[in-house]
Amino acid sequence: MSGDLGPRVIVPACLAALRRNPSLEIVLVGNPDSISTLLPTLPGPLAGRLHIHPASEVVLMDDPPAQMLRGKPDSSMRVTLQLVRDGQVNGCVSSGNTGALMALSRHVLKVIPGIDRPAIMTALPARDGPVYLLDLGANVDTTADQLVQFALMGSLALELTGVVQPRVALLNIGIESIKGSQQVRQAGVLLEQSDFVCYTGYIEADAVFANQADVVVCDGFVGNVLLKTVEGVARLMGGQMREEAGRTLWRRLLVGLNRGLWHGLARNWSPDRYNGAVLLGVNGLVVKSHGAAGERAFLAALEQAVQIAGEDLPSRLAQRFGQLPEVLRQTPGCDS
Questions:
Q1: Residue 259: per-residue pLDDT
Q2: The three-state (H, E, C) secondary structure of 41-67, written as one string
């Protein structure tokens, strides 16, 4: 019910997801009347996989997260997380208030033992494969220990999806040991002394996409600014490319001859394709969509949730954390 565009985007995206995934079922949580008016007459098989669960309240985008822990007990966000907690659904996808989503996730689902705060992680396009960035806005202020926890969560999450010895770097304003905030420098020292992640050192923002790391760790303020900067630059470049390509007949002909190349670039760098970030560190699957996500972008978040649910990532991550003392003794950081 929340996000910048609400049900008028989320409902059509859910219908598209059902058509693409024959084994998927979706529960739409919110005001039944508002949702039903956006639903067409569905064929029987499709209608049987779409359900509406009522919730009478909505977490607004400007609602203070702390107040949502006490207020709006029947909000669609809280009710959805309760369905995850109770095992009635496999995961939650929300484009609502990020702070409220994290606060309610911690309250309803609880955090994995050993984790202070969950972190939001997503994949971004990079040379020779994606790079994973966390945190993206769940934690504006972080301690050095929490940055180390983010590094561990990101590394283990990639290991569980098949990446061998993921390379982990700390985002900083330089690669020298004297650079950065006190928290980043302390986290760097702790990671250098650890043997549970393949820590490669500091990384600057211009190298994030150059295949120098598989996981890039930062606080939520920096990560959110970086993410939105990348999205803005991608949209700027796409618009300028279309403008320049249409200036002359000759350029339009060249674009026509290289249509596959242009479409491939546009698809690979479209921010919509990478919408959907997982909240690591809670006992359940929570995927955060951009608040301003359109239909195609929200569909990408849904498909991200389907993939993560299929991999059973949250419970496997919790299990690995339960084995953490053994992991610390037996898992090398990275090969020299």
A1: 60
A2: CCCHHHHCCEEEEECCECCCCCCCHHH
> If one looks up domain 1-115+281-329 in CATH, what number appears?
3.40.718.10
Strands (E), the chain: 26-30, 50-54, 92-94, 119-124, 131-134, 167-171, 198-203, 215-217, 277-280, 286-288
Instruction: Give the pairing of strands 277-280 and 286-288.
Output: antiparallel
Q: Please count the residues of the chain.
A: 336
Q: Where are the domains of the chain?
A: 1-115+281-329
Contact partners, residue 63, CB within 8 Å, separation at least 6: 72, 97, 100
155, 253, 258, 261, 291 from 249: Cα distances, Å: 50, 6, 14, 19, 39
Burial call 97-116: b when 16+ CB within 10 Å, e when fewer = bbbbbbbbbbebbebbeebe
Full-model pTM:
0.84
Residue 310 has pLDDT above 70, yes or no: yes
